[in-house]
Amino acid sequence: MKKTKRNNKIGVKYTKSKKIKKNNSRKIKKNNSRKIKRGGEYINAGSFGAVYANPRLLCENETLNRPGIYDEVSKIFEFNDEATDEINNIIELESGLGNDLEEFKKYAIIPKKICNINLESLKKPPYDNDKYGTYNNIKKWMSKKYKGKYGENIYNDDIFTPLRTPLHYNNNKYYGKLIISDKGDSDLLNFFNEINSDDFFKYCLREIISIGKGIKILQDNGFIHNDIKASNCIKHNNTFKLIDLAQSKNIKNTIENIDCSSYVYWPHTVVYTHFFKDKNVKQENIIMTKELVSELFNKYLKFNIKQYKKRMPILFNIFAISNKYGFTQEEINRVHEIRNNLYFQKTFNITNPRVNFNDNIIKTLNDPNFSVNQNYNDFLGEFNTIFQNFENIDTLKMDLFKRIDIYGFGMIILECIGMYLDYKNKQTNNDIIISEDIREIILKLYEIIYKCCYQGERVANFDEIIKEYIYIVPYYYIEKLEKTLSEQRILDEFKQYAIILSKNVEINNYKTMQNVRSNIKESNFDGLKNILYKLISIIKGIRILHNNNRFYIKLIDYIEDNDDTFKLIVSDDNISFEEVDDDIFSYRVPEQDEFLKKIFNLNTKKGFTPEEVIEIYEMAIGIFNSFSENGDTRFNIRRRINIYSFGIMILEHIHDYLNSENYNKDENNDENNDENIHKAIIQLFLFSYKCCYQEEDVADIDEIISEYENICGKLLNNDYVFSELKLPSPPLPPSSSPSMPRFIKKM
Description:
18 strands; 5-stranded antiparallel sheet; 9% strand; 47% helix; alpha+beta; 3 domains
């Protein structure tokens, strides 16, 4: 991918994604039919198949009208059994993660389904265009894989075996298997390639955290991803996530070794996985020899030599820091010590780097008389001792396989540092000197890399590595926010409404909104009024973020609760910049529909009249109709998310109150039959409707705050004569209602 110039005022990933999208939007504006012609666009090819998108390839019985088809990718496989193996791995993974599955989905894109390709669709637009057509791209991919011999990889679903037959449109018994997944944006490696400032380097380091969290969930449940690298991490919904889970393994159940064809990407101890091809292997038999290592390498001799020559010098040079960057000699010596230890482990203690950069490496491994290799058996003996001293074979196996993902995590950090050093090497004069704070970060990161990659002890504690990494890496968004607010002299005002987390404070130390809601269920209307009033500080804090082009990424989960007010808990995990992130973010999920239907569906048992019940339910209809017909409208205006979320928060509190024991203990109780309370609740429903309605421009936050303060002020003074709200008007008539909603007519 070509590098793009950045806006130095921003100094983060802004320009890459934004510029690409601007260019794409220009093309679409220039020729609106272009999008149709790009159907089945070839994205990439991996070990087992090729990926297509924009739109993805169709499954049997699907059409281009299927919702979300442009938001997904399709992977077509060389062999049916490879597709089935991947899905079976995913099924085992989902089952094994249990209660952690939903949390894992925050950090990984999990395939949705497997299906047969719709061959008939390939004969029609948008897949049949000569230049962009899928047929030609599949042909190109297969030709590349088979050195010009095309036509070997189409499948017969009836007998479930590959047929060595060309792709024929007119013979519909032949199918290719597809796996469907959500579509992401650029991968982490491309972001590293775009590093051109200290700020963007810090940003990239922060993004690596989500990858570490995904790995941790896998390991806590006895799984490994088995192919951790920067190109397998893509941006999706504002977070970098793991992809390509095809090779994930349940460590306890696997009886496969990690073959040495990819040895250069993984720790040298991967050769020990060879023993676990035998599910009944005894611990005392796990003894590696020089002869066995050579045998394993010789299976993939040419590949290993090629990868050594390509990769090892790169890894070696990333540690080659010098005083030109501003490092002291003591610091340089320590980093070189780390490099040498890891490098000699990687090369099985062959200590002459020049040997490893030419075609003689395998000969060296095989030559017992070669002087630099004389301690080779002693070196293996040290690792044999480590693996012999485990309590049992199960803990040994768990330790051995976990090393693979942890090593990959260390390599991702190392690549990020390498790209930053490449950027600095292009600078001149004093610009090449790295600032003191960045040098300190880099030195600490080298130590983390050493913990991840060093193999001379038991596997590193990954929980500790993640905690240490989070503490080292700068709070990029927080730093920028504090700087901006300080320049405008409103930082102290913002701190009235928010707590800005420092590195050593866990967000879990604070209450969640769920804790607050549980109190309402045991409260009366006075308790509800008090909580609603305390929410004013939340929306005021959001206003300051909006006015400074920041936004709150998620629903407001964590708060500080004291007697007078709530406070936002602000960290790098939940704020971002409107101008630097051009990803399209969806915040209307199917579960929210069900919630809205439930919360707006009152009944006369709650003390409301039939007319009031209908009026309130029609508010939900208005919100539904303000989204697109397929329920998948996406917005690139971040402010909508926060105002929508604020409306949802109020609705949640109302819902909890109306379902509280106090409100429902007796149909004849005072609150159930209090007309003023009913007026107040309807007014709050109307206000929430205004926050949640999507068809018009985003609601003005100053107006929202003014109206909400007015409502809460009246409630605290027991004044139930409310001012008229300025409400958005849905189109006439709503598709699910024969007339304009009653509550709109009244206004």
